[in-house]
């Protein structure tokens, strides 16, 4: 058998596969997680958009220009195998079909797109590590500031 046979198949599979798109509420903010399987080290570009009333609005993107109404409220964080959209002050007017689009530089296998319908009343609260980290940091800040507060009180006496 020819050991070189599988190579062309591997070449064709060089593409960012979006595995999962999920949305949740973190306080008043919407978080949309776009999980992917990384198959190349090439730089990754992304686009988060929303379709409502049959019109597409770009929320945050490295592919095209985002709309003003979203630009000030949105930011994106990138982790290993996860591109995460954070939209502040999420209201029912932000409901719609959210789309995550990923594209790897010099990847000719086309872009990866996945949709999720986001409705405020049906959103679950974000669980997991990010919430924990946020809460912990608040707690830590509080604990660290307690001696300071006491010191200030002491001085004013």
What is the element layout, followed by pairings?
Blueprint: H1 7-12, E1 17-26, E2 29-37, E3 44-52, E4 55-61, H2 68-71, E5 74-79, E6 82-87, E7 96-104, E8 112-118, H3 129-156
Antiparallel strand pairs: 1-2, 2-6, 3-4, 3-7, 5-6, 7-8
Can you give me a brief rundown of this structure?
With 157 residues, this protein is an alpha+beta fold. The chain has helices at residues 7-12, 68-71, 129-156; strands at 17-26, 29-37, 44-52, 55-61, 74-79, 82-87, 96-104, 112-118.
Provide a descriptive summary of the structure in words.
The protein is of the alpha+beta class and 157 residues long. The protein is 24% helix and 40% strand. It has a four-stranded antiparallel sheet with strand order 1-2-6-5, with no helix packed on it. A four-stranded antiparallel sheet has the order 4-3-7-8. A hairpin with a 2-residue loop joins strand 5 and strand 6. About 5% of the residues have low confidence.
Distance between the termini: 88 Å
Helices, by number, come to: 3
CATH architecture of the domain at 17-122: Sandwich
CATH hierarchy, class of the domain at 17-122: Mainly Beta
Placed side by side, the strands forming the largest sheet appear as 1-2-6-5
The assigned structural class equals: alpha+beta
Proportion of residues in extended strands = 35-45%
CATH homologous superfamily label of the domain at 17-122 = Immunoglobulins
Helix proportion: 10-25%
Taking all residues together, what is the mean pLDDT? Answer: 79
Element string (H = helix, E = strand): HEEEEHEEEEH
What is the CA-based Rg, rounded? 21 Å
Largest sheet: 4 strands, antiparallel
**Stretches where pLDDT falls below 50 for ≥5 residues?**
7-14
Strand elements, count:
8
Named CATH topology of the domain at 17-122: Immunoglobulin-like
């Amino acid at each position: 058998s020819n050991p070189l046979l599988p190579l062309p198949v591997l070449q064709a599979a060089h593409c960012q596969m979006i595995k999962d798109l999920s949305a949740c509420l973190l306080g008043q903010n919407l978080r949309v997680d776009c999980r992917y399987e990384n198959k190349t080290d090439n730089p990754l570009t992304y686009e988060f958009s929303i379709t409502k009333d049959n019109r597409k609005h770009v929320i945050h993107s490295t592919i095209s220009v985002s709309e003003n109404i979203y630009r000030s409220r949105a930011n994106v964080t990138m982790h290993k195998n996860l591109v995460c959209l954070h939209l502040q002050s999420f209201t029912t007017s932000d409901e719609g079909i959210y789309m995550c689009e990923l594209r790897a530089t010099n990847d000719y296998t086309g872009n990866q797109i996945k949709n999720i319908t986001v409705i405020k009343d049906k959103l679950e609260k974000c669980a997991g590590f990010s919430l924990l980290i946020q809460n912990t940091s608040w707690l830590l800040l509080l604990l660290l500031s307690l001696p300071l507060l006491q010191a200030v009180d002491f001085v004013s006496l």
